[in-house]
Structures are given as structure tokens and as C-alpha cells.
Specification:
Elements (H helix, E strand, L loop, with lengths): L1 H9 L12 E16 L9 E15 L4 E23 L10 E2 L12 E32 L5 E22 L3 E8 L5 E2 L7 E2 L1 E9 L3 E3 L5 E13 L4 E12 L15 E3 L16 E3 L12 E15 L21 E9 L9 E6 L7 E5 L6 E5 L4 E7 L6 E6 L6 E6 L4 E5 L12 E6 L4 E5 L5 E4 L6 E8 L6 E7 L9 E4 L14 E5 H4 L9 H8 L2 H6 L3 E8 L6 H21 L7 E5 L17 H7 L1 E8 L1
Parallel strand pairs: 17-23, 24-30, 32-33
Antiparallel strand pairs: 1-2, 1-16, 2-3, 3-5, 4-5, 5-6, 5-7, 6-11, 6-12, 7-10, 8-9, 12-13, 13-16, 14-15, 17-20, 18-19, 18-21, 21-22, 24-27, 25-26, 25-28, 28-29, 31-34, 32-34
């Protein structure tokens, strides 16, 4: 039931082809390809596909010009073969020969009456053939090209039900060999013939098996399927289709409930009393791969080509002729227009430079002029066209927009947003420019701008909103972050085209190096180690630019530990860690004379966690640190 539900969900089958019209169609088609009973034998050999074929008759209904549904009834022939070469010794999964006995033990006596048989298959090839009734439910898509729609493509995906009918047979090929021998569990004995060997086994010869055939026990299965191909219109009603198909079995079609207890070879009629000469093959029953445990699962698989016809039923849709009427070219006639450039805040006229050009006018139309601060500006423009407009005012960013002219609307009002420029230069306490300083400008109106100083310490924000108070923050690793405030008014008569901030003067701002940096030892070192970790080197390298920018700064690297362990050990550990940091800073180009390294063990604790005092891990962590102290000469 579960498989039926899954199949019902995915049931979308292939598309044969489609004339690009809505309505009902009759389909007929044939296929040729590798149709296979797909399985794997327990000797790891896989089935080999053989040539198969099929045919179908169906109906399809297209509810749009591209999409449709349909079904059909088809008959497909599947054909495959499998090779087996293996020896079996009392393996109950393959044959039923245990405790065999001979009614007449002959000269060997009762000790050689009971025996077990051993079989060997060599060059053993079995073929499987069968017919299946296939019924798909289809979702289809197709398209055609060109005005005449003579050629197109189609594709589809889906599923189908496959019902075994007519015959499902297996047959062993000629030259397949079966060897039989008997194994006697009694100790080795000398045969009555004084020239005979000591034996515990006896061979019954080899037989070339022919004519072994029978029915396979199969059940209904489900398969996913798909097609891709081309279609060609033979007439308004008939299409020729040519494509490829792929069928992939989703369920096991092997009917294990009807298998002969899983045995591939067994005595006929269950007999256990047979003369040895008969075991060459005359009295052995062969059940076939599919009916035995030689295969675990069997699926249907098909891959090949398909050709078919599609016939439209009912009324043929007629295509309407669409006559193209050439549009009259637009007359290159201009109309008078008036242009106003106003301040967006005060709505007063502005004296600005205006550049205007048309993108789709009958003739090139580009003009540059100055708008008036007292009156409108008169222009002659083409109606029903789009003009690009750029407005330029000294000290303000260029403002661009587009306007569309109409014969009815003869005046254009452009509102110029007045946004000044903010710029500055950042320096250190020695009046040296600082590159790579992060600048943040945040306004009480929610506006937020950012910039980074260049190699000359300069930054610029080309346009900033008016009518707000701004906080400007400058930040750089190794320096004390500094801020200042800037007010941008809203009244045009109070605005400046550009605001220069952060100059080195009494009202400006400069960045000074930090006095101390504390890093957790767990960031720098592994437990009980003094070698710098990779991330520790990255942290230290962040400080190097500040030291290079301020060559007058002296550095003290102080190592500290928590109060656990002996004072002597912690003193040594803190010194080793401080020297590791100093050595790495020297590798980065810092003059050794500028760096002093000290170890203080747990003599400079930051909290109460003295020896033998109970503290949390977080409190101990606070004391495990490396301090960088910076002092100017």
C-alpha cells in the first residue's frame, strides 16, 4: 500500500509529442532499446541488457498550447541475461543436497552409503524474457518554433504501472556446464581394487545443460520514466515524433512468495534416493535466478529510442493573421516648455548649471544652460520623449533625474536636494597623518555614513543630509577613539557647500596612542605553553602599525599568571610568555631597544584570588594576561 501511495504522488509520465494546439489527440508509437531485468547475482555479476521493443496506443489532452495530460496502453518486451560461475559446497541457499544416500552401497559398504553432493557451475548463462502491459498517467510539455511551427521539442517526466502478461520465461544457454561430485564424511579408506586411490569423494562427471527453461514468478511493478526529443509537423493534424526514453524501476517485481524455497538447484520431486550416474543432471530440478535466492531484488530498466505519430481530433484552431501597420514617424516638432529648479527645502529658485539631453528624440537634442534664481527658464523641447537632466551647483554633488515631456504639461519643476560635503584629515599626536582610520558619522535623524582615511590621512563624505546634528567618531587599533559633533543646518542661507572637520587645531580632534592594552593569555597561548598561537600573532600584528606611526613610543610587555601553582613556576612561565611576545614584535620590524619584557608571576593580581583562595575559573582567567604598556619618550 505504501508503494502505491508513493507511486500515486509521483505519477507523471512521459510526453510523446504535441501539436501546439489545445484539444484531444490520438497517439501511436513504438520503441526500440535496451530493456532489462535489472538484478545483481550473489557472485556480484550484474544482469546484461539485451534488445527489447514496445508499442503503445493512447489519448492526450492539452489544456493550453504547451501543457497537457494523457494516458495510454502499451506492450513492452524485456530481455536480459546473467552469467554464473561458482562452486557450492553444502550451501542451503543454493541447492537441496544434504545427507543423500544410495540404496545399494555396493562394494564400499555402509560407510559409503551416506554422502553429500557438491556442484560446480561453469560458463552458466541464463536469459530472461517477458512481456509487460504498461499504463502511464502523463503530464506533458511541448513547444514549437517559427511562424509556421513546423519543428519543436518535447520533454516529460513521470511514472507508469508495469503488469507482467503473456509469458515470463528463463532459459539456460547452450554450453552451460554443471559438474557434480559426492563427498563422503567417513575417514579415507582403500577401495577393494588394490590399485585404487584412498578417497573421501567421488566425481559423477560434467554435463552440458541444454533445454533448462521455465516460468519466472513476477508481480506488478512501478517505474519512473522520462522522454526527450523532437517533433515535426506533417500536417495541421499530424506530428511525427522522434526521441529517447528512460524507464527506471521503483519497486521489486520478484514474487518471493512463489519461489521454490529459495533453491536454485534441487532433486526433482524432492527425491533423495538416486543412483550416482543420474546426478550428472537428468534428475536435477533447476528453478532459475529470479525464482531463487541467487538474486535479492529485480527491477525493470529501459533505455532507447522512440518514434511515433500524433493525430489531432476535433476542430483545428485557425491562426489569426496579424497585419503589421507601419507607424508614422513622429514629426520633429518642438514645443515651448518652462523649467524651474527649486531648493527642495525652501522651494525658492536656484542659480544652477543644468545639462539636458534626449534619449529617444527624433533628432539629437542636448543643451547646457543656467537656471534663473528669479524666474523660470524657457526651453523648446520635443513632446512625448524622455530627457536626462543633470544639475550642478558649486560645492554640492551633481543631482541627476529624468523627465518625460507631454504636449499637455508645458512646465517642469525640479527640486534640487541641497546636501553638502564633509571632509577632513586625521593625524596623530605628533602631527603625522594616519591612514586606515575608520570614520563613522551618525545623525540624530537616523542617517549613518562611513569612510576610511587614505594614505595621506584624508577622508570625504560627498553628500550628507541637512537639518541634523552629527556625531563623528574616529577609531584605529592602538589609538584612543575620539569623537566630535557637527551641526548641518536646514536653511539654505545658513548652509555651507563643504564642511571640513578634524583639523589639527584648538577645536579639532587628533588620535593619541593608547596607554595600555590587555590581552588574555588564553588568546595568546595554549595551556601551560609559551609559544604564540596563530590568532595571537594576528592580534599582535594589529598593534604594529600604531608603533610604526609613533616611533617615539617605548613598549613594556608584562606577563602575569593566576595564583595556582608554585610562585617559582609561575614566575618562569610569565617571563617566557613575555619574551615570546617581545621576540615576535622584533620579527615584525620593531626596534629591540624600544621593547622591554617583564614577568610578574602572580604578584600583581587584579582581584582577591590569592594562593589558597577559592575562586571561579572566570576570576582566575582575569589574572592570566599579558599587558602592553606604551610610554612616549
Amino acid at each position: 500500500m505504501k508503494k502505491l501511495i508513493i507511486s500515486a504522488i509521483v505519477v507523471l509520465v512521459t510526453l510523446s509529442a504535441a501539436a501546439q494546439q489545445k484539444g484531444l489527440y490520438l497517439t501511436v508509437g513504438g520503441s526500440l532499446g535496451a530493456n532489462n531485468f535489472s538484478y545483481t547475482l550473489d557472485n556480484d555479476n550484474k544482469s546484461i541488457p539485451q534488445l527489447g521493443f514496445g508499442g503503445s496506443l493512447g489519448l492526450q489532452y492539452f489544456f493550453t498550447r504547451h501543457w497537457g495530460l494523457g494516458t495510454s496502453v502499451g506492450l513492452s518486451y524485456y530481455n536480459s541475461k546473467g552469467d554464473y560461475s561458482n562452486s557450492w559446497q553444502n550451501d542451503p541457499a543454493h541447492y537441496l543436497f544434504n545427507g543423500m544416500h544410495d540404496d545399494d552401497p555396493g562394494p564400499l559398504g555402509d560407510d559409503y552409503k551416506n554422502y553429500n553432493l557438491m556442484l560446480n557451475l561453469d560458463n552458466w548463462t541464463e536469459t530472461q524474457k517477458g512481456y509487460f502491459l504498461e499504463v502511464p498517467l502523463m503530464l506533458m510539455y511541448q513547444t514549437k518554433w517559427g511562424a509556421a511551427e513546423k519543428v519543436g521539442m518535447y520533454f516529460g517526466i513521470g511514472a507508469k504501472v508495469q503488469i507482467p502478461i503473456i509469458s515470463q520465461e528463463y532459459e539456460v544457454k547452450n554450453n552451460s556446464q554443471l559438474s557434480v561430485s559426492a563427498y563422503y564424511p567417513t575417514p579415507d579408506m582403500t577401495l577393494p581394487d588394490p590399485n585404487g586411490p584412498d578417497v573421501s569423494s567421488h566425481g559423477y562427471g560434467t554435463s552440458t545443460k541444454t533445454g533448462l527453461k521455465g516460468d519466472m514468478n513476477l508481480k506488478t511493478g512501478f517505474a519512473a520514466t522520462g522522454e526527450l526529443g523532437f517533433l515535426f509537423s506533417l500536417s495541421q493534424r499530424v506530428d511525427l515524433t522522434l526521441g529517447a526514453y528512460l524507464d527506471y524501476g521503483l519497486t521489486d517485481i520478484k514474487d518471493g512468495s512463489k519461489a521454490s524455497e529459495g533453491y536454485l538447484i534441487e532433486p526433482e520431486n524432492g527425491s533423495k534416493t538416486i543412483q550416482p550416474s543420474a546426478y550428472v543432471g537428468d534428475n536435477l530440478a533447476y528453478n532459475g535466478y529470479v525464482n531463487s535466492s541467487a538474486t535479492d531484488e529485480v527491477n525493470l530498466f529501459g533505455l532507447g529510442g522512440k518514434v511515433g505519430l500524433r493525430i489531432k481530433l476535433g476542430k483545428i484552431e485557425k491562426k489569426e493573421k496579424v497585419e503589421t501597420v507601419a507607424a508614422e514617424p513622429a514629426k520633429p516638432e518642438k514645443y515651448p516648455y518652462s523649467l524651474w529648479v527649486l531648493d527642495s527645502l525652501t522651494r525658492t529658485p536656484l542659480l544652477t548649471q543644468v545639462s539636458i539631453n534626449c534619449t529617444n528624440c527624433p533628432k539629437t537634442d542636448a543643451q547646457t544652460f543656467y537656471s534663473s534664481e528669479k524666474d523660470m527658464t524657457a526651453l523648446d523641447l520635443y513632446p512625448n520623449n524622455t530627457y536626462n537632466v543633470a544639475i550642478n551647483k558649486m560645492g554640492f554633488p551633481i543631482y541627476s533625474t529624468q523627465v518625460t515631456t507631454t504636449p499637455e504639461q508645458k512646465s517642469m519643476i525640479l527640486l534640487m536636494p541641497l546636501h553638502p560635503r564633509v571632509s577632513g584629515t586625521i593625524k596623530n599626536s605628533q602631527n603625522k597623518v594616519l591612514p586606515n582610520v575608520n570614520i563613522q558619522v551618525q545623525g540624530n535623524n537616523g542617517a549613518n555614513y562611513s569612510a576610511v582615511t587614505d594614505n595621506n590621512g584624508n577622508f570625504a563624505i560627498p553628500s550628507i543630509a541637512t537639518g541634523a546634528n552629527y556625531t563623528i567618531t574616529a577609531a584605529k587599533t592602538g589609538y584612543v577613539t575620539d569623537t566630535m559633533h557637527l551641526e548641518i543646518p536646514s536653511a539654505p542661507d545658513k548652509l555651507q557647500p563643504s564642511y571640513v572637520v578634524m583639523n589639527l587645531d584648538s577645536t579639532g580632534m587628533q588620535l593619541r596612542p593608547v596607554k595600555k592594552i590587555i590581552m588574555s593569555a588564553t588568546v595568546l597561548f595554549d595551556f601551560d605553553k609559551s609559544d604564540l598561537r596563530t590568532e595571537a600573532k594576528i592580534e599582535i600584528r594589529n598593534i604594529i602599525p600604531m608603533l610604526n606611526e609613533n616611533p617615539n613610543i617605548q613598549i613594556s610587555v608584562d606577563g602575569h599568571t593566576d595564583a595556582r601553582g608554585t610562585a617559582k613556576y609561575n614566575q618562569s612561565l610569565s617571563e617566557r610568555r613575555a619574551n615570546s611576545v617581545r621576540d615576535y614584535m622584533i620579527e615584525q620590524g620593531i626596534d629591540p631597544s624600544r621593547i622591554k619584557a617583564h614577568g610578574y608571576g602572580f604578584t600583581r593580581l587584579l582581584n582577591k584570588c590569592k594562593p589558597k583562595v577559592q575562586c571561579t575559573e572566570e576570576e582566575h582567567q582575569e589574572n592570566r594576561r599579558v599587558e602592553f604598556l606604551f610610554n612616549e619618550k
